[in-house]
Amino acid sequence: MTSQINAENLAALEVIKFPGKIVTVNTENEAYTAAESLMNETVVGIDTETRPSFRKGIMHNVALVQISTWDTCYLFRICRINNIHAIKQILESTGTLKIGLSLKDDFAGLRRLLPIIPHHYIELQQYATAFGIEEMSLQKIYALLFGRKISKTQQLSNWEAPELTNAQQLYAATDAWACLHIYKALKGEPLPTEYRKIFQTPQLKGIEKRFIQK
To answer: InterPro entries given for it (predicted)?
Structure first.
């Protein structure tokens, strides 16, 4: 089976949407409450969103951090929260494994806002290659594994808007959840029938230990 997917085949796939509950976090107190819940999880998916810049030399700060369990995704609107220490707590926790893609870029963006030393995380771009997957984008890795695609229509929307639209919330939640879904499938964890992978990958028990960044 191919380890890559082309644009034509990708475009033909059905769109996947996060099936769980979305919680928008707008205040410091809400952030600490969400962080407390998330740090009770053994593994979560994580991603960030930044307002796009269409002018040369202009770079915006990270506006949103989305962190997802299998059934709940928290959207931390850090562009509206004065104290984001709760995010630091999650990222530096050694008890909750964080799964993401292009985490180096996410962490670099967050370091512009606060000093962080992330612990206990896995970079999916590295992890997926161990299973014979050659694609590097979240959309293509997901499509290859599950035969569905992640919509990118909201990627360049305004993540600093006073209120996020339902479409923005769903897009952000889907990205973080998809990271977790990919990890669980590659690890061989039991999943509901509709979320099982179709791409046959080698069974590599315990391999994730090689990829966990301490």
So the answer is: 3'-5'_exonuclease_dom (IPR002562), Exonuclease_MUT-7-like (IPR052408), RNaseH-like_sf (IPR012337), RNaseH_sf (IPR036397)
